[in-house]
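Record type: monomer structure entry
Structure origin: computed from sequence
Chain ID: A
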Amino acid sequence: MTVAVVGVGYTDFRSATPDVTFKEQMFEAAVKAYTDAGVSPRKDIGSFITGAEDYWEGYSIFDEFVPDQLGATLRPVCTISGDGLQALMTGVMQVETGMFDIVAIEAHSKASDMLSFTGIVSHGLDPVYNRSMNVSPFFVAGLEMRKYLSETKTTREQCARVVVKNKKNALDNPLAAYPASMSVDEVMNSEMVSDPLSRRDLSPLADGAIVFVLASEKRAKELSDYPIWLKGLSWISETPWLESRNWSEATYAKLASKKAYKMAGIIDPKKQLDLVEVDDWFSYKELQHLEAIGICEKGQAGKLLEQGKFDRNGETPVNVSGGRLGAGNLLEASSLQSVLECVLQLRGHAGKRQIKNARTAAAQSWRGIPTATGSMLILSNEK
């Protein structure tokens, strides 16, 4: 591929933002991204894409609110009803067609405006067999966690260590909503949500917005002194049926990573990736995703975590940003938060959490329960 990130813009991520609307958040992030890229939305950008789900927004046909905030009035605008990484990949494909040299990508979260997050998630369940049970949708994560722990011999303590690590990493991320110094016992002794899933195993919701500017190779070299090249990408949706999926591993992540690695020429991800941002909507998912994308063998992630292999100074730094557990669950924008961290690291702009000599990074996403949809993106500061 010959597409690069040339501009990034973002707001802080906060547990609640009663003083601003989602439109103001989008505008703030967009202005920063266009300034970073040195482009005008009216003169330079050919297409605008947002990753959003009407259920989260509380509006039907949400993209009617997109043009004004992004400077996209009377321009091509589309909404991807998926996570931000899927929207970004749509932008890559648009640039690859040759029809657009520059494309803007946006995703955001105004989760604090929701009256019932679990009520919305429940609407994603099968209405006949699952939703009609009228229980918290987190039972899906509880069952999957139980199956994963049972089959791989991973422990609850190892999952709790994911929370401790990511919240600690978030202490050095000024954007993060939930940085904390926390003990394993504090995680394990928190309120049980769906055994063995405790309250602190869940990533807390947050508000925020992120905008990226993508450009073709020619324009990227003209616009940026440090373009970040998108080397490989893929997204996969496996079965939507809870009753027929593999509960012990993340098949979607395994399939998506294989395709992305092949496109990027990654043969040994453990050696070739300098950092990895994986989805940690729930603590056990970080371990499950690391195994699925080939960072370690199935059942080994928890042990390697205990050995410090995934710490910031470890062999493969994982979720240096703090992930969803530390930065906050930004809904469809969480995957762009992962990409943002990769871009900042590869630019050398990550501040206290900077990984030395980072050249290649991976961002992996999952759309959350009850889906089995995931994406994978490989980035590099080397063409």
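Annotation 1: DSSP finds 15 helices and eleven strands in the chain.
Annotation 2: The two ends are 10 Å apart (CA to CA).
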